[in-house]
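Annex B. Sample input.
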Amino acid sequence: MIGALNKNQIDYFLRSEVVGRVGCSDGHETYIVPITYVYDGSCIYAHTREGKKIALMRSRPEGICFEVDRVHNMANWQSVIIRGKYEELSGREAEDALQLLVNRVHPFTSSETSVPRHALEKRTTPISKEVKLVVFRIRIDEATGRFEKQ
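Annex B, continued. Sample output.
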């Protein structure tokens, strides 16, 4: 059976996963890359370093797509696709978002890059002065989900 996920199922699914794929484009080039994330009920929060995806998201902040899936096998899967707006965070907002992310991802930490070390330590200088870290959210405009279950 193939079907659509309702709003509550989408919400539960997004809260239960930690890796999704962000898709962005400058109108000429499309770029899709996996990221760790946390979902708070209205936005996707993530962090990264300056690079291609940030440049593309800055160039077209309204054109962001985010996808999360769980595939058990070809007949049993779920997928959620989000369309939304990229918003770069700074100051206290960035600190709070980064803490949400650290709290969510920390139990799954298996590598140095999955949780930023600088987020776990008490800081005396702002994040932006320590590393070229970008903390952002995707404000959700639309979320749809599908599933197949046998």
